[in-house]
Specification:
Elements: H1 7-30, H2 37-50, E1 54-55, E2 67-71, E3 74-76, E4 90-99, E5 102-111, H3 117-135, H4 143-156, E6 160-161, E7 167-169, E8 176-180, E9 197-200, E10 203-205, E11 211-213, E12 220-222, E13 228-230, E14 233-238, E15 241-244
Antiparallel strand pairs: 1-4, 2-4, 3-12, 4-5, 6-10, 7-8, 7-9, 9-14, 10-13, 11-12, 14-15
Helix pairs in contact: 1-2, 3-4
The chain binds 2-amino-4-trifluoromethylsulfanyl-butyric acid and cobalt (II) ion.
Length: about 250
């Protein structure tokens, strides 16, 4: 069941989204060689609380931290730990905030110090794939229009989209209908309508799209150890087009 949101509910989600965007920016300022993911997580949790929000992930199905911090070949759901980041790493940062009963969810992959050209290209392509997907988040399109845009940009660059992880509706719950795959299949998905709020989140790899779950039962990494990137925005389908709710600006794609 897809829950469409009123204009007022979308404004509340945008306030949650602003806290998410500011948290990602704060971590972006601190990411660099030598800092631990635990230290980054503590910064995020403190900031989210200072803004009157709750870190949505903490306690979700027992998840132990405020953020998911996934380095290099780890795609998503990395549990913050004591290992310091190293020059040349990439780090995917996933943040969810609940504010006044609504959730916003966004992710960004950052360079740690100086990264090589292939890693840089992976980040740029994943960001372009997200932008292309968002552009399709318009009333009258279907979910598969978003999926196709993400997959086309990714595969044109020679990278792979992961099949076993998908985007999702978001609202009072972090995960609502519909699913938002990053690839096309026989699933066209529902037609997009005004008031739908979805998390579009390309998860792409340099090599094979196969992934596995670690023994901690959370972290997910590429089977071939190739680098992975993850960019995500919470987006509302509005009369005026796609509205990104997890951006520092009040972004509307015309
Ligand atoms: N953004 C992720 C997702 O949509 C975060 C979930 S982490 C969890 O699945 F710990 F909260 F599960
Ligand atoms: Co998500």
């Amino acid at each position: 069941m897809i829950i469409r949101k009123s204009q007022q509910e979308i404004e509340t989600m945008a306030r949650a989204g602003r806290v998410v965007a500011d948290t990602l920016a704060l971590l972006g300022e601190h990411i660099g060689p030598g800092i631990t993911t635990q230290a980054l997580d503590a910064l995020a949790e403190e900031y989210i609380h200072s803004q009157g929000g709750e870190p949505t992930f903490k306690g979700y199905k027992g998840y132990p931290a405020a953020t998911c911090l996934s380095p290099n070949g780890m795609v998503v759901h990395g549990i913050p730990g004591k290992d310091p980041l190293v020059d040349g790493d990439i780090l995917s940062v996933d943040v969810g905030v609940t504010l006044d009963g609504f959730v916003a969810d966004s992710a960004w992959t950052y360079a740690v110090g100086a990264i090589d050209a292939e890693a840089q290209r992976l980040l740029e392509v994943c960001q372009s794939a997200l932008e292309a997907g968002i552009e399709q988040a318009r009333a009258g399109n279907t979910i598969s229009d978003i999926s196709r845009a993400v997959q086309t940009v990714t595969e044109a660059a020679g990278f792979s989209v992961i099949r076993s992880l998908v985007g999702h509706g978001v609202g009072r719950s972090m995960h609502e209908d519909p699913q938002v795959p990053n690839f096309v299949s026989s699933y066209r998905g529902p037609e997009l309508k005004e008031g739908m709020t979805i998390a579009i989140e390309p998860m792409i790899t340099v090599g094979s799209p196969e992934v596995y779950i670690h023994d901690d039962e959370w972290s997910i990494s590429t089977t071939d150890s190739s680098l992975a990137a993850h960019f995500e925005h919470t987006v509302a389908v509005t009369e005026a087009g796609p509205r990104i709710l997890t951006s520092k600006e009040r972004v509307l794609v015309p």
